[in-house]
Design goal:
By secondary structure, this protein is α/β, with parallel strands linked by helices. It contains 11 helices and 7 strands. The chain has 2 domains: 130 residues, Rossmann fold; 64 residues, DNA polymerase, domain 1 (Orthogonal Bundle), CATH 1.10.150.240. The strands form 2 sheets. Strands 5-4-1-6-7 form a 5-stranded parallel beta sheet. It has a two-stranded antiparallel sheet with strand order 2-3. Strand 4, helix 7 and strand 5 form a beta-alpha-beta unit. It starts with 5 loop residues before the first strand and ends in an 11-residue tail after the last helix.
Length: 206
């Protein structure tokens, strides 16, 4: 049986649920734009991807979004609404603590400077092995970001497992030789790790 020494986990959809309803309601309260207009302003390819790659700052992103929405909301309000998206999955955090006793725990996430304020607060107590897209200038599923992470963490791709809730990211990791699985829930993850002989959790068999 293959020996695994490290596990790489995605952030959004794994450690956090994404509460888009709260986020959308927050922006709707602060602007007189429609939801479709808000979504286009926040996530248009020419703005969102440069932000997630760290090519523009949070303040630059905020100012451009505000211009597109013709909004006068403060940066503080923008930050609060933007970060309201992330809701901790406490069960996943508890399980991750148990994994740190047997594997090097690493986090690889497409994210931005504002969300990283929350992530660093929550994830640094678990591990210092964090790679965020905005800090390295590229995003999943680009194989380059996986190679950057592997080099930074000094991990052999054959000795690590990767879980992500997006299939294109799973396939990107497989391109560089990482054993990768689609994350569909913590129970399924526990069962997979038990079957792989990595970590046995009796509750996963109930």
């Amino acid at each position: 049986m293959r020996t695994f020494t490290a596990i790489i986990l995605d952030m959004a959809g794994v450690f956090y649920s994404l509460d888009f309803r709260t986020k959308w309601n927050g922006f709707l309260r602060k602007t007189d734009r429609s939801l479709d207009e808000i979504k286009r302003a926040l996530y248009h390819d020419d703005l969102f991807y440069p932000y997630e790659k760290g090519l523009i700052t949070s303040h630059e992103y905020y100012r451009e979004v505000s211009t597109r929405l013709r909004s006068s909301m403060s940066f503080s309000d923008f930050r609060e609404i933007w970060n309201s998206l992330l809701v901790k999955r406490e069960e996943m955090f508890r399980y991750a603590i148990s994994l740190t006793h047997i594997l090097k725990l690493c986090i690889l996430s497409n994210t931005n400077d504002l969300n990283a304020e929350i992530l660093d607060r929550d994830l640094l107590p678990l591990t210092s092995h964090l790679v965020y897209s905005f800090r390295v200038g590229c995003m999943k599923p680009d194989p380059k970001i996986f190679l950057i992470a592997l080099e930074q963490w000094e991990i052999d791709p054959k000795e690590c497992l990767f879980f992500d809730d997006r299939i294109e990211n799973v396939e990107g990791a497989r391109c560089v030789g990482i054993n990768s699985q689609l994350f569909t829930g913590i129970d399924e993850m526990k069962s997979f790790l038990a079957d792989a002989g990595v970590f046995y959790d009796p509750k996963s068999r109930e």
